[in-house]
Amino acid sequence: MKKGLKISFSLLMTAILIFSLGACSKTESLKKVRVAEVTRSVFYTPQYVAIEKGFFKDEGLDIDLKTTAGGDKTMTTLLSDGADVALVGSETSIYVYAQGAEDPVINFAQLTRTDGTFLVSREKKEDFSWDQLKGSTFLGQRKGGMPQMVGEFVLKDKGIEPHKDLKLIQNIDFANVANAFASGTGDYVQLFEPTASVFEKEGKGHIVASFGKESGSVPYTDYMAKESFLKKNKDTLEKFVRAIYKAAKWVEENDPKEVAEVVQPFFEDVDVEILASSIERYQKQGSFGTDLILNEEGWNHLQDIMEEAGELPKRVDYKTLVNTSIAEKALQNK
């Protein structure tokens, strides 16, 4: 009996060892991709779904994700080889190129296709109209960043001259804008979700308009990499895009509450109901797109917005900073 137990125990230990070695081998075989995201936002829901649902691992990738608040910090991280891929506004690639970068940053996939910010008023507005902003203190985003430029584009379209009709504050660091408004600065503020909905629930502000709806389609946040990395890692980036595509499709086809439950680990302090309503807002205004290809019309529209804001250093040809071949090949083999 004891001999039989000894043999069974030996077989069990052997099985455990084989399983452990197999698991280690599988983990070690995953290729690590370091991703720097410009902010942590529900706006990037497909990315978090791809991580939580294992779509990246299915493609043989291990994602090392870090948040580098602000476009300037994110681009610095990418340029200094602190990340392989950046998720940030397309405008940053133009700024880097205009400074004469020897290794330019290339946009290879588009994650969001609208602005992701909402206009939040300190006071509740039963019948909001844009002209109510005239004479108010507006807490905007960083000068030269996509939120600020799209914000100004929309305000001008509504007959408001941002630098004349408003007391415009835009010298507060990106990560501290929400805190500044919560502490009493400004009558209006431009915020991403889920912060906008959290403020509304806590009575700190009220969502009165969507900059995404008002500005229309624009290549707002893209995945990009240095040209040198892109040339050497096309297969890896194709796998990366395929995982994002699977996630974007999953988000498109599922209920906001179910999506919220999947991404909640990335927003531990936010109630799942708030996450669900935030995701639903983005779904309804078409912020999440399954077409991850940045087209030329969108690229030109982006530069028009930058030019209108006085932030375009020079116009850059579409093919110079946009590479669609990776996304096109990834989507062909999805």
Automatic annotation (TrEMBL):
Compartments where located: Periplasm
Keywords in alphabetical order: Signal
UniProt KW Signal keyword: yes
Pfam name, any one: NMT1
PROSITE patterns: PROKAR_LIPOPROTEIN
SUPFAM superfamilies, sorted: Periplasmic binding protein-like II
GO cellular-component term (any): periplasmic space
InterPro entries, alphabetized: SsuA/THI5
Principal localisation: periplasm
Superkingdom of source: Bacteria
Family indicated by similarity: Belongs to the bacterial solute-binding protein SsuA/TauA family.
PANTHER family reported in the protein's UniProt record: ALIPHATIC SULFONATES-BINDING PROTEIN-RELATED, TAURINE-BINDING PERIPLASMIC PROTEIN
Name under which the protein is recorded: Uncharacterized protein
Native species: Heyndrickxia sporothermodurans
Lineage: Bacteria, Bacillati, Bacillota, Bacilli, Bacillales
